[in-house]
């Protein structure tokens, strides 16, 4: 039997006065990657934050039921908030998180093309370089479960392919991954969730 990574039931999301989605239940098995799709403003990032435990599920407006989320194992969220100190050189900014999460292996630093950027202040990094740095942080967290919000934004073609391979390797190694992205993803056995089906 395949081990479960995530069980989420009856998720409903309201932000401010706006109801976004309801009745969303999903199961994710170890080794599985799920692509969350949907038009701008539908609630993909909100769902990712909810799954990360940063936004509580809202009570359903009809049934009053408040959904639940259960993960097996630690999770890591990567979104546009890279959490790296803009005033520090990249190496020092990553070293801060290494003391919290664990070190980023040299292999990952090299593979992400960051080795020559470690003395560059984070604020000077390009969009794609900051995204690569965020991916390094993700790897350093060594979490079984990944939540990736628009992981390909700002990356060049080769880096997009590298991230797809990273996700495939992570899942092949028993990890699980949910990816919110407007971009097509070339990842083996990827399943899809169209958030529009749950829109309110
Ligand atoms: N903190 C907040 N307070 C109130 N409304 C919010 C808040 N954050 C987001 N929203 C609203 O929730 C809706 C969904 O936003 P969200 O970022 O989850 O959408 P998305 O599907 O990820 O969009 P995109 O594809 O553009 O990234 C938007 O209408 C947004 O304005």
Automatic annotation (TrEMBL):
One GO MF term on file is: ATP binding
Concerning PROSITE patterns, the annotation shows: ABC_TRANSPORTER_2 (PS50893)
Name of protein: Heme ABC exporter ATP-binding protein CcmA
Q: Which domain of life is it from?
A: Bacteria
What are the UniProt keywords, alphabetically? ATP-binding, Cytochrome c-type biogenesis, Membrane, Nucleotide-binding, Translocase, Transport
Looking up InterPro entries in the UniProt record yields: AAA+_ATPase, ABC_transporter-like_ATP-bd, ABC_transptr_haem_export_CcmA, P-loop_NTPase
Q: Which residues form the ABC transporter domain?
A: 6-200
Gene name of the record: ccmA
